[in-house]
Specification:
The protein is α/β, with parallel strands linked by helices. It contains 12 helices and 13 strands. It starts with a helix and ends with a helix.
């Protein structure tokens, strides 16, 4: 009888090896992005803090702090999820790579949900809609201040990886990204907006295309710069929160926060407060 019992057990172990190995050999269950965030007790935000009033560095109580209305949105998302907020500041053109690789859980950085970006990440609902302007030198108002076509044959700048690169190429007639000469493309792309502002100030480029609240913040800090009278529309649909692909639960939670803030008119409040703070720095 004992031999028969042992033989049956041996057969069962061959047919059902997972029983012998216990749960360790069972297929792992997928854990959603939202579950991972809640288990970790924190959500990691990726942003490029050179874009006031969206996100920027400010001296708060003697300490360098990343602030802005995007940051206020991130704080509210973290609060609604019941987790802490951790902020990682990096170059704008590296944000989506950090998201895809799992180094950050979400990206909030004035990012437009273009179709190209949607191929690699998911986006929330739009939380802010902005128009875009051109930062030029005060001395060049007569030359570049009244007609966007005046920029079509000169070197202008936009932040690398940002929607303004496309706006510059598509909405300024004649700006195609082709070379003016072998060394200078018509749209000069740099990773940091302050570097582009310095390019204008130093007469290396003629204008920078940026969202109006951002452009206005830099103009107020630099009396030798001003805004052109024209503006450009955002055909892609405003700013949204980016998360890792196939994260429906996280998107739904973020959308709930956005809907609440919009209903309470908090987004506009955050924009105003961030603009005033940027002006004071």
């Amino acid at each position: 009888m004992l031999k028969r019992t042992l033989a049956i057990l041996a057969t069962l172990m061959v047919i059902f090896p997972v029983v012998a190995g216990g749960k360790k050999d069972a297929p792992a269950q997928d854990v959603s992005s939202l579950e991972k965030i809640k288990a970790a007790g924190k959500i990691i935000l990726g942003t490029s803090a050179d874009y006031p009033p969206y996100e920027f560095h400010a001296l708060i109580d003697g300490k360098d702090t990343i602030v802005g209305f995007d940051i206020e949105l991130a704080k509210e998302i973290a609060k609604d999820l019941g987790v802490e907020l951790e902020i990682k500041d990096m170059s704008f053109d590296g944000l989506l790579a950090a998201l895809v690789s799992g180094n950050v859980d979400m990206v909030i950085s004035g990012m437009t949900p273009t179709e190209e970006r949607r191929q690699n990440v998911d986006f929330s609902d739009i939380y802010y809609q902005a128009v875009h302007g051109a930062v030029i030198r005060v001395a060049d108002v007569d030359k570049y201040g009244n007609d966007p076509a005046s920029l079509k044959d000169v070197l202008i700048g936009a932040q690398r990886g940002a929607i303004q690169v496309g706006i510059a190429k598509e909405q300024i007639k004649g700006v195609t990204g082709a070379a003016l000469d072998n060394n200078h493309p018509q749209v000069k792309e740099l990773g940091a907006l302050p570097d582009l502002i310095m390019e204008v100030k130093n007469n290396k480029i003629e204008a920078v295309i940026a969202e109006l609240p951002v452009a206005d913040a830099y103009v107020k800090r630099n009396p030798d710069l001003t805004l052109a009278l024209y503006s450009f529309s955002d055909n892609e649909g405003g700013s949204a929160v980016a998360v890792k692909k196939n994260s429906p639960e996280l998107v739904e939670a973020i959308n709930a926060t956005i809907a609440r803030l919009v209903a309470e008119d908090k987004i506009n409040q955050y924009v105003g407060e961030a603009s005033l703070l940027a002006d004071s720095q």
